[in-house]
Amino acid sequence: MIRAVLVMNTQGKPRLAKFYEFRPVEKQQEIIRNVFAVLCSRPEHVSNFVDAESFFGPDARLVYKHFATLYFVFIFDGSENELAMLDLIQVFVETLDKCFRNVCELDVVFNYSKMHTILDEIIFGGQVLETSSTEVIKAVEEISKLEAASSSINLVSKSVSSWRSR
After folding, report:
1. Confidence class for position 104, pLDDT limits 50, 70, 90
2. How distant is the alpha carbon of residue 19 from its chain centre?
3. Domain spans, the chain
4. How far apart (Å, rounded) are the C-alpha atoms in residues 160 and 146?
5. Among 11, 15, 73, 158, which residue's beta carbon has the most beta carbons within 10 A?
């Protein structure tokens, strides 16, 4: 099971933190600080796999990838394959690249809800749902269409209701 997904910049500011097990906010912040401390202390030529038992409990592993100014981090237990998690990070980043045309930190900051939608299409409740970035893009586009249709229906109903009250 995937326990958490973190996206943080190179200064340690979390840009996305999604925990799939309940953790009090203070504990979440402590985990984010600990993860960043581990990541920034590692040389670039070492493995992207880290034992996360010290700050996430027994059998916890951490895999990360560093792209430009962002770290993408998945924390998971022994039931998940480390290489599969590394590939899943790649799928997540590729999907973000397709949605935002070369994703950067500002895209993550200003499109927070879309980023959560993308992540929810890939992982839900700590379980992997989809590994094809093309399928994820299709689902996100459908959700965007439904949201646009929903907001236009709301706009019409408000204008019609105000017209009737005249």
Report:
1. confident
2. 10
3. 2-154
4. 21
5. 73
Q: How many CB atoms lie within 10 A of CB 87?
A: 13
Tokens 């299709």 locate to 138
Quick check: 23 pLDDT over 70?
yes
Reduced to 3 states, what is the DSSP secondary structure of residue 125? coil
C-beta separation of 3 from 76 below 8 A: yes
**CA–CA dist 64, 5 (Å, integer):** 10
Long-range contacts of 19-28 (CB under 8 A, 24+ apart): 20/123, 20/125, 20/126, 21/126
**Computed from CA positions of residues 140, 142, 146, 151, in that sequence, does the dihedral angle turn out positive or negative?**
positive
- 148 burial (CB, 10 Å; 0-12 / 13-18 / 19+) is exposed
Enter the tokens of residue 138.
């299709």
> Is 70 exceeded by the pLDDT of residue 164?
no
State in words which class domain 2-154 has. alpha beta
Q: What are phi and psi of 59, to 5 degrees?
A: 65, 15
Q: How do residues 35-48 score in pLDDT, each as one tens digit?
A: 999 998 888 888 89
Better-scored residue on pLDDT, 77 or 151: 77
Average pLDDT score over the chain: 88
